[in-house]
Amino acid sequence: MRLSTRLLRIAVGRAQYRAYTGIGRRLLRLRRSTVRVGDLTIPVLSRPGRGDPLVFLHGFGADKEGWMGLIARVGKRPVIALDLPGFGKATRIDGARSNAAHQARAVRDALDALGTKRATLVGASMGGAIALRFAADFPERTRSIILLGSVGPIVDKSAFMHALDGGKNPLIPGTHDEFVAMLDFVTVKRPWLPQSIGAYLAAEQVKRKSDLVELFDGWLAQDAAELDAALSRVKAPTLVIHGELDRVIDLSSARAIADRVASSTLMVLPNVGHVPQLEVPREVARAITEFARD
Questions:
Q1: Could you write out the three-class secondary structure of the chain?
Q2: In which residue ranges of the chain is pLDDT below 50?
Q3: Which of 8, 30, 228, 244 could make a disulfide contact with 45, Cβ separation 3.0–4.6 Å?
């Protein structure tokens, strides 16, 4: 593809993405704001309502807008979706601050700034580990936890872990083709995405590759034993949702979380990969709604 054609497609995709997310925010009555947490600025999407909100914590390389499709399916509950530090439009951080403990404290401080005392945390992949650490460190702030393809103790190595051993990281694309390959890697059946929007999202990921490498290396550098030990301190009711065919986090990790968290339920989704919120959003939304209500 000629450079001018590719740049035009990216520009069109940027405009479409902004239009679609803008329309989505209006339809879902989501308010955009930012909160200041120390030296961090954290963008927020929120919707007020009665009761404790659902707080959505995205996975590695993602952002708060990725939750909008799921938010559309959870009814009129109050919701909060954050750009975690280092991701989306949040303040950049170095790898030393990307670990679960630092991120959990940033989430707590952001909820303080929003006046939210207690919440149900919905965490995907990396966001799941942050939700678990939040519940372990701040139990009085945690009503319950819902995990989607969450990072957990390594029991059996996934295809992703084997790729890392071989010096490759399928989650950090360096080209458009690698971005497409990443989508195929994290899903069993890739959700439809307009070409132009895909080109824009791919360009954004490629542009941030060096930042993502530093954040990922910082995440790997944290003490895995300390993260695993936090599971025994989690007392909040926990729903562990995991794709049976997850190539990023092996299903054995979800079983380990369910075994070690005292009040937990494991829900295995057949023929689903690492991002069930995108692959089977209706089923995930129904499980979230029923669990949060109970």
A1: CCHHHHHHHHHHHHHHHHHHHHHHHHHHCCEEEEEEECCEEEEEEEECCCCCCEEEECCCCCCHHHHHHHHCCCCCCCEEEECCCCCCCCCCCCHHHCCHHHHHHHHHHHHHHHCCCCEEEEEECHHHHHHHHHHHHCHHHEEEEEEECCCCCCCCCCHHHHHHHCCCCCCCCCCHHHHHHHHHHHCCCCCCCCHHHHHHHHHHHHHCHHHHHHHHHHHHHCCHHHHHHHHHHCCCCEEEEEECCCCCCCHHHHHHHHHHCCCEEEEEECCCCCCHHHHCHHHHHHHHHHHHHC
A2: none
A3: 30
